[in-house]
Amino acid sequence: MARVLKVLGRVMRTGGKFPEAPCSRKNWFFGHARELTNPATRLDIIDSWCEAVGTCEYRLVSRRGLLVTELEDVAKLSALRPRTVQRSFMIRLAFEYFAPGVFTAELPEWTVERRIVSPAFHSNARLSEYGPKIVELSERLCQAVGGKKVAINATMYKFALDSIGLIGFGQDLDTLRGGDASMITECVRILGKRILAPLPYYRLIPFFGDRMDGGKARQRALFQFLQDVVRRGGPDHTVLAKLLEKNRSENNALADERLAGNLATLFLAGTDTTGTTMTWMVKHLAEDPALQKEARVEARRFANRPDDFGTVPLLRSLFREVLRIEGPAAVLPLQNATEPVVIAGRTVDPREYAFVIPLRFLGKHRLPPDEKDPTNFDARRWVDRKEKDGLRPWPKALMPFGFGVRTCPGKDLSELEALIAVCALLRRFEMTLVDDGKGPHKTTFAFTMIPDRDIYVNFRNI
């Protein structure tokens, strides 16, 4: 009851410190929530608010958010992480239920977890050890799509899931050939539902709340599975083997539960994101024969190693442009947890607002003034043959993997997965986008930003 009264008190509070987001469906109780009901239009609405007002506030029942649209303010928030500015409490609460790891950890635990997790990803030598497993799965991927019309979004999700299983701890989930990974995919579905819920029902209703959506049973099954994996230990050349090796050298070693939580983080943060990025890459290649032909030349000289990234500047440019326009992480929710922060000339007290960084808006509208057609998709936008790696430097507005010291440690692994998979397809097939008669594909919000419907592609053997 106390929690319910607290929510009602926040709902009844009037006034704010910042311009209010323009909303035609605002309600005294739900606030702006009704305007954001449809996942297919949610991000477009947020972008329209940012274009119309700039930095502005909104309310979802009792939760107040602040859309931060100026790069100097974003840079300030970046500099204050992780001590003063942390991940949004509600997002952290929902995510940590299924994956208590480095993604959700804050100080002082974050320092230890980051020190143990990062070495598994942060060198070309480490990533090269994972390459052969990804190549093995790319062969399965080619077998799964060869000579067929395929829903590429579902197929790429399975490829990403199988990659995490093999790279993470040597477990062959084999979903590309019919293996069952519902234990993980159901956790992703429930997590997305909880993040979207305007009321955190699983907190407001003791005991029954976290059982209303089946989350408790799924969480127990996932953790039992992953803790058993941790106790058995990981084969050589897996993320788990690296975690266990580093953990043994730590004075404050992580318990098996936290190690299992970091494996869960790999699944929940690394499947939708990488799978969706690869989906859009294939979609753009399949609808543009000239782009596909040019990319195929690069694919044939790529040796599936991070040291060879410089040989595929066009494909890397495509990877970046997908992240800019159709990236799986379109917003980044934060909060000032310990001290007041000045945003747009106004002082924000701790936990007063959730800071929401609109990543897609910044990527489209805060690029340098001389950028050509910044709101349009251009697969060749980042190619610059004069640069050492063939790519222009990323502007400060592009933050698809977060920013500052909290940048995602798996970002290079994600790019390696995408390049190996897409290059394998380019070498073997001519790809053609299937027109379903429903107009352009758009993004919609689930756990991450995903295609609003299946994207079908025909794969014809070369």
Automatic annotation (TrEMBL):
<keyword id="KW-0479">Metal-binding</keyword>
<dbReference type="InterPro" id="IPR036396">
    <property type="entry name" value="Cyt_P450_sf"/>
</dbReference>
<dbReference type="InterPro" id="IPR002401">
    <property type="entry name" value="Cyt_P450_E_grp-I"/>
</dbReference>
<protein>
    <recommendedName>
        <fullName>Cytochrome P450</fullName>
    </recommendedName>
</protein>
<keyword id="KW-0503">Monooxygenase</keyword>
<dbReference type="InterPro" id="IPR017972">
    <property type="entry name" value="Cyt_P450_CS"/>
</dbReference>
<dbReference type="GO" id="GO:0020037">
    <property type="term" value="F:heme binding"/>
</dbReference>
<feature type="binding site" description="axial binding residue">
    <location>
        <position position="408"/>
    </location>
    <ligand>
        <name>heme</name>
    </ligand>
</feature>
<dbReference type="GO" id="GO:0005506">
    <property type="term" value="F:iron ion binding"/>
</dbReference>
<dbReference type="InterPro" id="IPR001128">
    <property type="entry name" value="Cyt_P450"/>
</dbReference>
<dbReference type="InterPro" id="IPR050121">
    <property type="entry name" value="Cytochrome_P450_monoxygenase"/>
</dbReference>
<keyword id="KW-0560">Oxidoreductase</keyword>
<dbReference type="GO" id="GO:0016705">
    <property type="term" value="F:oxidoreductase activity, acting on paired donors, with incorporation or reduction of molecular oxygen"/>
</dbReference>
<dbReference type="GO" id="GO:0004497">
    <property type="term" value="F:monooxygenase activity"/>
</dbReference>
<keyword id="KW-0408">Iron</keyword>
<comment type="similarity">
    <text>Belongs to the cytochrome P450 family.</text>
</comment>
<dbReference type="Pfam" id="PF00067">
    <property type="entry name" value="p450"/>
</dbReference>
<keyword id="KW-0349">Heme</keyword>
